[in-house]
Specification:
187 residues, alpha+beta, 16% strand
């Protein structure tokens, strides 16, 4: 079986300020992420990766069988490596802490390169609207497993910030800090 190429421009693989909208699904659509315990564990893995400087997390939503992320990789970490940290870290901890023995994630992930503030804002809306479109919440504010809800627990109404481009930060989505005080935007 041959492995399909990613059709990536080699000069674009490792460079500063590469922001992506990423989606990955659980293995065979299993609803592994619907429990509070598993969603909290995934959030902890995301925070650990951010603290280690592997990427900057701008926004996310954890759905029962998939996740959407809006992240910027650091100059020395490819998107593939960032996703390996997330998926591998969660799989390892889920199996170690809960005794789960099955496959956790589908192979691979889908990604879209975010190139400008409008695209960034559009992907933030997509992330916020996902629980509403699937009937899990009446409004984005009602869904507990997203960046906005966690930030709201610590801050009354956080002002989100997009990655810095041309010097000035652009307002779009996310927050400056995670609820536990870990910086999620190293900007």
């Amino acid at each position: 079986m041959s492995i399909p190429s990613r059709n990536a421009d080699p000069s674009q693989i490792v460079q500063d300020n590469r922001t992506f909208f990423v989606t990955t699904n659980t293995h065979m659509g299993k609803r592994l992420l619907q429990t509070d315990r598993n969603a909290t564990l995934l959030i902890d893995v995301l925070r650990s990766c951010v603290r280690a400087g592997r990427f900057t997390l701008h926004d996310f939503v954890i759905m029962p069988d998939h996740i959407h992320l809006l992240l910027t990789t650091s100059a020395n970490v490819t998107l593939e490596k960032a996703m390996q940290f997330i998926k591998g870290g969660f799989s390892f901890r889920l199996k170690r802490e809960s005794g789960y023995t099955g496959e956790v994630w589908q192979r691979g992930f889908s990604d879209h390169r975010v190139r400008d503030p409008d695209s960034f804002a559009d992907h933030c809306r997509c992330i916020a609207d996902n629980p509403v479109k699937t009937g899990l919440a009446a409004s984005p504010e009602d869904f507990p497993w997203c960046f906005r809800a966690l930030a709201r627990q610590k801050f009354s109404q956080p002002e989100p910030t997009a990655p810095k481009r041309d010097g000035e930060p652009k307002t779009a989505c996310g927050s400056k800090e995670a609820p536990d005080g870990a910086t999620l935007r190293h900007g």
